[in-house]
Amino acid sequence: MRHSSRAVTLLAVAALPLALSACSSGSSGSSSDSGAHAKPAEQKDPNAGLLTGAQLKQVLAPASAFPAGFTAEADGSSDSAGDFLSPSGRKAAKPDCTRLEGTSWIQVTGYKGGVSFAQNDYANHDKTETLAQEVDEFQGTTAHKVMAQLESVAAECATFTDTDMHAKVKTTGRSASGLGDEAYTITLTSGAWQNGTTLVAARSGSAVVTVLSTQGSDNGAASAKKLTARIVDALKAKKSA
After folding, report:
1. Residue 37 — pLDDT band, cuts 50, 70, 90?
2. What are phi and psi of 97, to 5 degrees?
3. Which residue, 236, 227, 226, 184, is CA-closest to 51?
4. What span, in angstroms and rounded, lies between the C-alpha atoms of 111 and 64?
5. For the purposes of burial, counting CB atoms within 10 Å of the CB of 64, is it exposed (0-12), middle (13-18) or buried (19 or more)?
6. pTM of this prediction?
7. Which of 93, 112, 86 lies closest to 1, judged by CA?
8. ∠ Cα 114 227 84 (to 5°)
């Protein structure tokens, strides 16, 4: 699980000064200012328009949105607060499919996460069902690339062995509609499990919402879609406010 202990750095926007040259004129040898003072070029803030971790935390579904008996996990809540993190490139190595089993599963794509994020997870009393939610903001077109990578992950992780029961897990993925600008759903099932897991990733602009659910008898499908839709709607409202 990704926590806010990740190093936080502010992206400084530095102006590059332009050298001013003086030219000499006349036979006297005296120097005079050319009179032309060019203004330094302004650099665009790569985080302009992105929500901070503190703002993304407000977008996450509240406790009242979860089924009766579900409570927040004490060690499952984390965010990047008011600062932006340094952007990280994608690791092109073969995906670690076991990341699909836990929260912050967006990292299976090779991307560590966004420049800002917020996450938490809820579980029922006996810890047999879990609902986890996370939102990451990305610079530029990175959010598009994250979503594109998910389809590759689903194919590469078509089968893998889970870490707890050492059981064979089957992975299926498909595009989903009605959730943000684009969405992708991954379902994990195993003959050794009582119930499967549904993972939903939905992009809304520069942000990617990721949800994990094992709640319900349908491999968590309905609850995952419902939670994702709620977060996407809250995200849109926050950005348009």
Report:
1. low
2. -60, -25
3. 236
4. 31
5. exposed
6. 0.83
7. 112
8. 20
